[in-house]
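Now for a specimen:

…
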Amino acid sequence: MVKIYGKSDAETEFLNSVNGCFKQIQIENIQHFNDFKDHPDKHKKNIIDDFDKKINDIEQQISDIKAEIKKASYDEKEINSQISRKIKTLHKLSYPGPLKYKIEDEIEELKTEKEYALNFIDESESQIIDLQRKLDEEKTEKQKAIENIDKDIIKVRELIEEFEIRNMLNGAWGEIKVINAIKNSYNKESGYYLINAFDIDLVSKALDFEEKILVENKIDHLLLSPKGIFVLETKSWKNFSENGIYKCTNQLRKTQMVIEKIFDEEFFTNTKYVIVTTKSSMQLPENSGFYSVHLKDLQRFINGFNEVFSKDDIQLQLDRLLPHLNKEHITGSTKAVIKMKTNVVKGKRFIKRIFKS
């Protein structure tokens, strides 16, 4: 079974971009966004149903308490009637004795029961006041939610018309397809580890790449397997221009340089650099040293290599990779990512000052 760390970086970027646009809906993942886009009325109905359930529950509580108050009021009247009859009986007894004392005790017990019933009624009426206030709040919130979800339905239609959002959505779907393909292809295999959004922090080993100082390098997917290490960059483009191919190979060259700087020879000599296309295929220059594979051929491509890592080798390479993972890979904490990126920015400024001096 493939052990997966982290999730699609493009999906995370997409969710961060769109979730601030909605008033009612909180998009959980790409599938959720698509489902909301395609079936907005279903989501609206679910929200209304949730409020209606809360409202019905409160109304039922109020109804039950009112029934209990009615019963307690009936009991209180019955107690009053019993007290009245016993007092009359007591007045007929002109002399003290065991019977008179017994009736007096019964009257006191009935008065205690009456006090309990009256207290219960008072407390229950207070509960109804609180529940009624809560009921009014839920009805107000329901109306506000309906107005907000209607705005969200309009907003999602606007978002999918935006070029940047469509690009992010397209990229996110591409990365998710790659993740799912690897997960499904090697579901019954052992020794496969997939790290998504693998961000290598270079603050301590900053590199000069094309007259720019690199302080971090993010890889879409890094697959550790018995067949070696595969750096996978996903491209969900409909076509590839000469400039687009250059950008892809340049991206892989940068990643190759980073890996050779950070890891040892055994690691980088067994690393393959691959552009995974999910739509159109791409032809790389023969001398590039890199690979371009369509997603449908990815499993066959990986399986075409001989095994180079034993079980112990894989564990050793995994131990080298894990220190480079951020907390989000392990816990899903977005705060950890924000903190890490802040440190990277500070590091970048610090390195620039060193190079200028």
